[in-house]
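We store chain and fold; example below:
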Amino acid sequence: MVFLVILAGGVVRMTQSGMGCPDWPTCFGRWIPPTSAEQLPPDFEKYLKTQDIDHTFNVYHTWIEYINRLLGALLGVFIFIHFIWSFKKFRKSNQQIVLLSLFLLLAVGFQGWLGKKVVDHNLAVVKVTIHMLVALLIAAVPLIIIYKLQAAKKIEAKFLKYLSYSLIVILLVQIVLGTQVREQIDEISKSLKYQQRELWISRLDDMFIIHRSFSWLVVIGAIALWFKSRTINSLQPGVLFILAVVLATIIAGLVMAFYSVPAIAQPLHLLLASILVLSVFSFSLRLK
């Protein structure tokens, strides 16, 4: 569900639908968004006057953004059920699980509040970046819970553990750099009225070069992870999956760079990066 919400968020940005609903939690003051301009409330301009967006109603942008919100709300429902279930089953036998479930619930609540702030501040880049990092945190907590429930014996590999932590840090830095590049793409595409995609990459500043060059650290880190774990058979499926996702993520990035930022590549690149950082985190949980 978290990955689905992340993918939906990527589609929102890909289609420039981030302000399709200019207010939160309602959309144009309604719980069910309008499907035509005729259904807009008489005072709908009050929702737009503080936003730097086109004031022409676009039903596709509105519903793409609204579906993203609905998926986020559905995730919140699942996590609320998860907390109640955890409390009922583990409140006496394993309070760590209950506390992690409570933290997960609070993190989703914070993410919802942050989503409102992102809308209120017209997709401010810092808030969008934090929004993404919190999503990764929400995805990481269930992995911790799963490993605690499995109670599997960890593998003694201290250096490998630190190496996986280092790779996680590198990946998080790379994701932050990527959100900065994505913000520039948003500004460039808007200035060109979302046309002339072949010019978008050429107008990026040095942040794009840094982001592209930083990917070599990711590759080196993933190869080092494989090299140090090659003698531990039980770790091979996990590390080979990490290498495959690294390759797929880089290919998606190259497609964007050399093929004029095709729309489908943007959310795919984001989804693969998210899967990658959580795969490395899952790998690290198996080590001590």
